[in-house]
Amino acid sequence: MAKSSAHGGFHLATSYDAIRAVAGDGEVYSSYVSGLGAADVVAEDAGSDDNPPPRAPLFEFDGHSHRTWRRILQPYFTPAAAKGHESLIRRLCREAIAGFVNEGRADLVSAYTQVVPPLVVAALLGIPESGRELLADQAKRLVAAESREEAEERGREYAKLLLSHIRERAAMPRDDMLSDVVHAEVGEAASERQVLRFASLMVAAGQLTTTDAAATMALLLAENPDLRDRVRASQKELDEFIEEAVRYEPAVAATGRAVTQPTTLAGVLLDVGDRVLITWGSANRDERYFSDGDVFRMGRGRTRPAHLGWGAGAHRCLGRHLARLELRVMLQELLTALPGMRLQAGARPRRTYGVIRGVREVPVEW
Ligand code: HEM
Predict the structure, then answer these.
(1) Which of 48, 54, 184, 206 is the one with CA 20 to 30 A from 227?
(2) Helix 86-98 and helix 116-125: axis angle, to 10°?
(3) Whose CA is nearest to atom 7 of ligand 1?
């Protein structure tokens, strides 16, 4: 455990056992926590003291209401539902690759890993094909903002666009995820602000994570020609590679929880209102469970206990079947089109740090 006074003060849990304990106890550790962790990447509506930030359905609910939201949304996330998106994902990958395959070199982040996931998550929400590019562009612009003012302005534009889709469904429900959330009643119907926060978090959960995970994986492959050739030759090895990469460098490095009753965690007393940052990436390298945790190593298989790159407990990643499929198809298509891709000579790709982690650019040639 560590303690920081940054961001209004928080505790940091780093061991596998402490993180599992927090993630497994939604009564003591609530997911409705402001200003800390992955949920804080969505800050369009931060609320104020007398107007608290809206609580996002699913992501920020606990206990019974969380389980109810999860049941409502589950059908969109089964392995079979994920499979239903495979041909769309493959088409998007091929279109993106066609844009640079003849160039002999590319930055895989801007040309590929940032291009496919936002279009997939827009489809998942139920945005019609004609509206997906615009939503994806605005989401990308928001992520690329370089100052707080720029982020706020782009956040407002983005929220306006999402709201137009939400209002359309409020007036006329369709058979899609966004309509289900607008019209569901869990206790009471979610307010417009809540649905908006849900939609922004879903775009972030589906887009930022997969973009960063795919970039981290593309970099690992571009740096290691032997590994690249192994995973190109076998889907089993590719799937194993993806799982080990999610252990080794999980895109969601940390998320937050708020303490709801006095408790003790790893010997540290916590009080009501304290906030805890749980660092999934650190749990995944806990030497008590993962030998040579700092080493990327194929062949760990689905180790017991499981790594925590997809989270743990009630909020464990609902999108993991889709994410695994998306990453598999993205890497398959990339390695089929560019079997000999390697890092450009002299390139030193920069990592991005924070609660969501990835790589700024992956400059390759072939
Ligand atoms: C490699 C990519 C991904 C990683 C590493 C990842 C990781 C995670 C983690 C660690 C959590 C738990 C957060 C917490 O307990 O505080 C989570 C939750 C979640 N993820 Fe993912 N995720 C990925 C991709 C996706 C995708 C593609 C989607 C869907 C579009 C998705 C949807 C969700 C949802 C809905 C939750 C919240 C579940 C709940 O609150 O019950 N994720 N994810």
Answers:
(1) 206
(2) 150
(3) 310
